[in-house]
Amino acid sequence: MIDINSMLSSKIKYLCSLNSICNMKTECAEEIVPNTWGDLIDLDSITYNLTDEGVVEVDNDPAFYDIEIDSITNVPFGRVYGEHNGEVVVDDVYRLSSYISKIPHGIVDKKRPGIGATTLEINAKRNSIIVVPTKILAYSKAKMHPQCQYIGSKINSERGATSKAELYNYLNSDIVYKKFIVVADSLKRVLDLIEEKVYNTYFLLVDEVDMLQSDSNYRPALENVMDYYFRFDKRNRCLLTATMVEFSNPCLKHETRFCLTDGKPKRIIKLIHTDNINALVKNEIEKNTNEEKILIAYNSITQILGIIYNLDSDLQKKCSILCSEASEKEAGEFYAVLNNNKLPSNIVFMTCSYFAGVDIEDKYHLVTVSNAEKFFQILSIDKMTQIAGRCRLENGLLSETIIYNTPKKVALFDDGTFQEMLLNKAYKVLDLYKAADKISKNDTDLVRLFSIVKKAIQEKATEKVGGEEISLTRPNIDGEYVPAYFNIDSIVEKMKLDTGYYMIPEWLKNELAKSFNIVSYISINEDINESQKIAEEKSTQGQKQQLDTYIKEAMAKIKQLEATGELNDDELKKLIRSSKRNTRDFYDRFMRLYKYADNNIVINELWKIRAENKKSFKDINNAVVFWALKESHPIKTDLSSSLIKGSLYSSKELQEILKSITTYHLFKTIKKRASVSLIKSFYSLNRPRGKYKVIGDNPKGFTEHKKRISKDENLTGLILL
User: Fold this and answer.
1) What are phi and psi of 581, to 5 degrees?
2) Total Cβ atoms within 10 A of residue 527
3) What is the 3-state secondary structure (H, E, C) of 645-676?
4) For residues 681, 682, 687 and 688, what is the CA-based torsion angle, rounded to 10 degrees?
5) Separation CA 304–CA 336 (nearest Å)
6) Rounded to 5 degrees, what are φ and ψ at 702?
7) Rounded to an integer, what distance in angstroms lies between the CA atom of residue 227 and that of residue 216?
8) pTM for the complete prediction?
9) Contact between 303 and 323 (Cβ < 8 Å)
10) Using an 8 Å Cβ cutoff, are 697 and 683 in contact?
11) E strands of 203-345, at which residues?
């Protein structure tokens, strides 16, 4: 066994003297490469010069193309109306392509959705790879533009997953400018196909990059896009969004910025603050007696169903839900899709998969919901603007209402150092990793020791937000640990919202009033009545039943893999990548444990806790790991000599027994309650006369030993505390 204490005293203290490798940050190319007119327009195209005098056609003088440009502002976008013979008619329709023929490189803040930015790049005279947030959006863009190739998984019975043959055929086709439209998970496929030359011969556009930032916590592979992004030449890459979130990645401080806007949007907004969002949404639906369409943007199917079930039966029949294909079963009978860009019913709810990238060519009342109590339901003002921008008809929004609440627990006010604190926390972990690697080079004992220490450190490199532990570091595409910048971005954004315009009800009103016309503002306290309780309980139970269905399907797939001899990590990882979040958790948990104990018992134990918290999984995990330990493992020998079967122990005595073991082997202190839980996962206990009695081992009843954990294997990250 490695003598950790002696090594700490003789070698690890050396860490503190390594100033040359402390405070390592990401190395970035600091040169900012500005856009010029030559980057944005083609010599053979008719474009416009934006001058103080107005919009005039460009004289194709080559000298003009060297002039730098960092914004296109205060120009018309959309339909421009004029009066002719006493009638108001459309004079012209302006898109971004009215002014430039290629998207700028760098970080492009377009401020307003629907100006044709993605279409501009699709039609640009160069090879492009366009990364979009969802496969439905990728497919719909490719279908709309036949020169584009969709890359992704199966869409429906008509459009299967993109095959290798399909990609090779497209790459070798006579289409002059190749246009690949992909989701983040499929980007590597096209890069591997084109090989190293892709970084100089293709333009990479990452569309709606803010969605990658916000979703990266539960889809860690999303930030891999940025690893590839930085391999492209600075003139061959762009991050595009209409709802800019601040970037913590220091390399992006050196990207050129480009702003696109036609000035402040003139939206008329009704604002409602409440402590009962669902009741207020129901009221807004019932007030719409003119049979006009109403669209409610609310990022929670459970809450949406709670509202629908609280409506009378006639209104329920008019309801539908626009959500991702992966959530179709949760939405059930209300699941729908846009029909030729028209809303599918009179009362339509939509979740975040429809907040960006879709065109709605319909007239409707918009109700936007921001729930400050939930991490993935709180909305920034830019996100609200993005939602409103889904309407592509001039004057299509018949009205706009924002319903919101404020957090019950007020967060600490952010003094501007929160992002710095998170970055420093991540950097310190990475500095320790790098220092450990340097010290332990060619020293086998230290390599083993630091492998233990690294796992212990990694477990601490998190930030708790909204009840979730969010990692501050991640492995990049080369397997090296780096800061998880997108996770940090989303944490900082949540903090800014909580401590900014959501901390006090009137603050959101004041912030919106800077740019929009707030025609009314009210704050309503609304009790939850009995019908609402029943409706929301029905929704909650329905979602639990749906989760049961998903888990049963996952169990069946695992048993099928086992029956065909294909049960392995690679196949399980494929299922994890293609599954919904809750099912993904089930597969992930099974993959941690199946190699150690009986598959059927592991599956049944995971089924029992499918809707419970992480603590329940810890009990199963620790039972499996303890079962897998060889009898000679120090934790097993230490416990067997300290706990006598048939003897009685108080919770305090159990804590003392475990204290030295967890401190030495797991680098963690343990509390009294946690001590009892851990012992219960290792041994069968009962509790006569207020004390705990050890009556046997193997409390889960495992019968099969598979992979055994040797006495030299460290348990940090295997045993969960």
Assistant:
1) -60, -50
2) 8
3) CCCEECHHHHHHHHHHHHHHHHCCCCCHHHHH
4) 160
5) 14
6) -65, 145
7) 14
8) 0.72
9) no
10) yes
11) 203-207, 237-241, 257-261, 268-274, 294-297, 319-322, 335-336
Q: What pLDDT, on the 0 to 100 scale, is given for residue 95?
A: 83
Q: Tell which residue, 418, 530, 412, has the closest CA to residue 463.
A: 418
Alpha-carbon span 545 to 573, nearest angstrom: 25
Residues 6+ apart with CB under 8 A from 11: 439, 446
- Check residue 559 and give its pLDDT: 93
Dmax over Cα atoms in the chain, in whole Å?
101
151 within 8 A of 167, measured Cβ to Cβ: yes
What b-and-e string marks burial along 238-248, b requiring 16 or more CB atoms within 10 Å of the CB? bbbbbbbbebb
Report the DSSP pairing between strands 237-241 and 106-109: parallel
**DSSP E strand boundaries for 362-404:** 364-370, 397-404
Which of 366, 367, 369, 368 is closest to 396 using CA atoms? Answer: 366
Length of the chain: 721
Which tokens hold the place of 574?
Answer: 């494929």
Neighbouring residues of 138: CB distance < 8 A, sequence distance ≥ 6: 132, 150, 151, 152, 181, 182, 183
462-465/468-471 β-pairing: antiparallel
What is the rounded CA–CA span in Å between residue 519 and residue 399?
Answer: 11
Instruction: With H, G, I as helix, E, B as strand and everything else as coil, classify residue 357.
Output: coil
Domains of the chain, start order:
37-261 (3.40.50.300), 268-408+503-528 (3.40.50.300), 415-498 (no CATH), 534-583 (no CATH), 594-721 (no CATH)
Tokens at 280, concatenated: 């207020």
Angle at 252 (CA atoms; ends 250, 256), nearest 5 degrees = 140
Which amino acid makes up residue 260?
L
Tally Cβ neighbours within 10 Å of residue 220. 15
Given the DSSP bridges, would you call strands 347-350 and 294-297 parallel, antiparallel or unpaired? Answer: parallel
In whole angstroms, give the CA distance from residue 420 to residue 423: 5
Residues 6+ apart with CB under 8 A from 392: 114, 341, 359, 360, 361
The answer to whether 321 and 351 are in contact (CB under 8 A) is yes
Q: In whole angstroms, give the CA distance from residue 245 to residue 416.
A: 15
- Token pair for 338: 């846009």
* Cα-based distances in Å from 88 to 93, 392, 429, 676: 14, 19, 64, 78
At 534, give phi and psi (nearest 5°).
-65, -45
What tokens appear for 504 in the block? 């006090």
Give CA–CA dist 718/662, Å, rounded: 12
What's the average pLDDT block by block, 10 residues per block, for the chain (721 residues)? Answer: 37 36 54 89 61 50 78 74 60 79 92 84 95 85 91 80 90 93 91 92 93 77 90 94 84 90 74 96 92 95 96 95 88 92 96 87 96 87 88 88 87 70 88 80 71 67 74 87 90 80 89 90 92 93 88 93 92 82 85 93 91 81 92 87 86 86 77 86 86 88 90 79 79
Structural Rg of the chain based on CA atoms: 29
For 61-95, give the secondary structure using H, E and C: CHHHHHCECCEEECCCCEEEEEEECCEEEEEEEEC
Q: Are 487 and 465 in contact (CB under 8 A)?
A: no
